[in-house]
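Anyone have tokens for N-acylglucosamine 2-epimerase? Sequence:
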Amino acid sequence: MVTGIKSEEARELAAMYRSQLSDIMEEWAKHTVDPTGGYITDFGEDWELVSRRKNIWAQARQTYMFAAYYEYSGHEDKWLSLAKLGRDFLVHHAYAGEGRWYYEVSEDGERVIEGTTTIFTDLFALIALAQYASSSGDQTDYVLIRETFDCARNHIMDPEFRDIKPHVWQKGIERHSPYMIAVHSSMIAEKVLGKDVTGPFIDFCIHKLLYFFGKNESGYLLESLKEDGSVWDTPEGRIVNPGHIFEGMWFCIDYARGTDDAVISSALSIIQDTAEAAVDRTHGGVIHRFDCYGKEGEDTVRTDTGELKADDKVDWVNCESLYALALAAVLTENETSIDQFRQLHQFCQTHFKPEDGGDWYPVLDREGTPLRKNKGGKHRVAFHVPRALMNLSELFETVS
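Reply: yep, here.
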């Protein structure tokens, strides 16, 4: 492959990302196993235990990553065994029936703390079970995977479906994130269910992302729009979330590579437009959010990661951005895209990666100083950062 990133640089990047991925996965493997079932995920700065809560987003994401890493690392049994711990906990304790999944259960899984409040739990459970089935070759969960996929697809296509936490359903408003997460979840499910089952739904979701949310008068792909495609001119409706945009666009590109140049072209255009506005040219890194019209919004918002200012730098935002910009650099060979990738790579290596290695700091201030150093959390596990490092190492191995 001819590219502005030469073979030697690509080899160095692939080796660096592979090594850092290994460190993070080994770190999590050492601390996360709960002898009572599933994973412990809520840790402080030095892996001290904060709580033993069993949030199903976290359980499912960790299951997916262990199963994916099993394939990536050459089928070492250790990683499949770790993935099975999560798979077993999910199947035996988190399934509500009829394709729906609980949001949180008690430590032992015997008591439901919060029920089927969000479509995202269903989608994360889908990637966990589908990746485990694909990696292991065990088709025991085929019917459960199909039920979960069918249920999620039907609910996402239903404008009256209201279980979209952390969003609040409002009539006449469409949300970007269910379609975005559905693309990736359905791509993983396709390994088990086949393209005939998942393909039409993925195409529907990608069309929504690129040609509904990505084509409006603001010029940005927005988190929400009115159902007629116009901007919902409120502080919430004007939010641009760069992390979700970059993540969604690499989902689209990965699905379309080799089959649909028009999708790739549209996604690359959105990546470039977003990068122009979201990359901090003074301090580096990608900011958490901004207003599409430049209006004043809330200075601080509360999330599951804690309170975040608009110009804070968040780990998942920057690692998803890093892979999207790497794809843009490799696919376009454009010097601007290559420079954007290299600059973000340097920022992440300098500021997010601790000097002694291991998982990234979760949140930095605008200048790049860590605001929090916790290892895990309610939703934070080995997921966004290691998935990005895995994708990056595979991409640059191909280039080299």
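The longest helix spans residues 7-31.
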